[in-house]
């Protein structure tokens, strides 16, 4: 077993080598962090690392400030702040960096000082993974179900345009509640929403973002990946062997791109909620307990999860097995919640949002509901045509309005506003 001293030297030498590699690749911030691991006892490497750190400080400052200025010009002040999040405290104190961080804070304060309280309806719309390849969907035996439950890429884009034109602004679902303690008990209440004047709050959620392998090559993508620092999609066409990477055929990259072009469509960078089961993994990765490559799949999925969180996305449980909860026993609900904790939450992180499969919810005083409360859920989402938010003692229930082929054909009047 390596001693602490051996580990220290190993990490130092590994850090130096990693720093040189990252510097060559142009990842100057990453190189700075790696060079910072080099210890003084490694005299030659340490001296070289310090020289490289001095040279990189200026490069990092110039690069980050240029990126920050571009975001500030679009009003994306919170995204600009995130650029500097991974810098060590000494680097943040460099005059140029410190000045830019002060400017960003000032812009954020000016923005918040102009917010007004919103007391109207909070709309919540949801859909499923998009039909990225219509020709495959037409040819597959799931055509009818997909056409009813999902949207085509063009439809989703058109909906985003209309929502934007009608002054909606995306908010984080977690910002809709406040949790306080009253007489030693937790109390849930609706949060006070402060938004830009004239804007209406909107929550978007997306169900079953797991990409079940049984549906491969039937019209949807295979998985989400990270490429060039952004979440994109990967699909392999079995018939030809072609591998398709795109940022324009699924809800995540499409919404990311839309917000980048229209930053006033998002409040403080909020995007949407991805609703995840677990029985066949998450985000296209086979992270469930029966997966033969589970460890490597978890590692790959976690990389995507972190980029999603950093860019304004969050997650909800959609029940491990996507069961009809009204037909399940209390023990079955407990079993599913435990499996979700062990196989999905361990990849996605904590969430207080539960989305009822099929929109079938049980009452707050039902034992099955209490099981979910005990597992940490506080916001519960159903499916319905009337948008509303009802705060109860322990939970907040929120209806969602579906966006899918069936609704587009049959619910025109209900959706006109």
Defining traits:
alpha/beta; 4-stranded mixed sheet; 6-stranded parallel sheet; 417 residues; globular
Could you walk me through the main structural features you see in this protein, from its secondary elements to its overall organization?
This protein has 417 residues and is α/β, with parallel strands linked by helices. 43% of the residues lie in helices and 18% in strands. The chain is built from 15 helices and 17 strands. The protein has helices at residues 4-25, 28-35, 43-73, 77-82, 89-92, 95-113, 134-139, 143-149, 153-165, 251-261, 294-310, 330-348, 367-374, 405-410, 412-415; strands spanning 115-118, 123-128, 168-170, 177-182, 185-190, 193-196, 200-207, 223-227, 230-236, 243-246, 273-276, 314-317, 353-355, 379-381, 389-391, 396-398, 401-402.
């Amino acid at each position: 077993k390596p001693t602490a001293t051996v580990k220290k030297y190993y990490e130092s030498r590994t850090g130096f080598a990693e720093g040189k590699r990252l510097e060559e690749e142009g990842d100057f911030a990453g190189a700075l962090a790696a060079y910072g691991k080099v210890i003084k006892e490694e005299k030659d490497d340490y001296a070289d690392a310090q020289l490289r750190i001095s040279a990189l400080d200026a490069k990092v400052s110039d690069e980050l400030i240029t990126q920050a200025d571009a975001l500030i010009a679009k009003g994306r002040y919170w995204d600009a702040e995130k650029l500097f999040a991974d810098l060590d405290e000494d680097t943040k104190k460099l005059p140029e960096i410190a000045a830019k961080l002060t400017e960003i804070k000032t812009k954020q304060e000016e923005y918040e000082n102009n917010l007004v309280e919103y007391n109207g309806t909070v709309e919540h719309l949801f859909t499923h993974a998009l039909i990225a390849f219509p020709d495959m969907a037409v040819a597959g035996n799931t055509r009818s179900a997909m056409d009813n439950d999902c949207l085509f890429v063009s439809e989703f884009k058109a909906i985003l345009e209309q929502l934007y034109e009608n002054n909606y602004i995306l908010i984080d679902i977690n910002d809709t509640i406040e949790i306080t303690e009253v007489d030693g008990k937790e109390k849930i209440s609706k949060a006070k929403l402060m938004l830009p004047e004239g804007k209406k709050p909107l929550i978007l959620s997306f169900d079953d973002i797991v990409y079940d392998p049984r549906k491969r090559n039937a019209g949807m993508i295979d998985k989400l990946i990270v490429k060039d620092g952004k979440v994109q999609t990967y699909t392999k066409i079995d018939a030809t062997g072609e591998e398709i990477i795109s940022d324009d055929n699924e809800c995540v990259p499409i919404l990311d791109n839309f917000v980048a072009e229209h930053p006033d469509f998002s409040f403080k960078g909020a995007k949407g909620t991805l609703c995840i089961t677990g029985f066949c993994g998450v985000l296209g990765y086979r992270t469930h307990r029966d997966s033969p490559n589970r460890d490597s799949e978890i590692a790959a999925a976690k990389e995507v999860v972190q980029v999603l969180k950093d860019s304004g996305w969050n997650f909800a449980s959609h029940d491990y097995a996507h069961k009809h909860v009204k037909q399940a026993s209390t023990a079955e609900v407990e079993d599913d919640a435990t499996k979700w904790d062990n196989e999905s939450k361990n990849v996605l992180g904590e969430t207080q949002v539960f989305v009822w499969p099929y929109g079938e919810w049980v009452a707050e005083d039902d034992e099955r509901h209490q099981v979910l409360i005990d597992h940490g859920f506080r916001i519960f989402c159903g499916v319905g045509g009337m948008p509303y938010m009802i705060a109860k003692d322990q939970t907040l229930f929120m209806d969602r309005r579906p966006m899918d082929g069936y609704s587009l054909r049959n619910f025109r009047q209900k959706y006109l506003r």
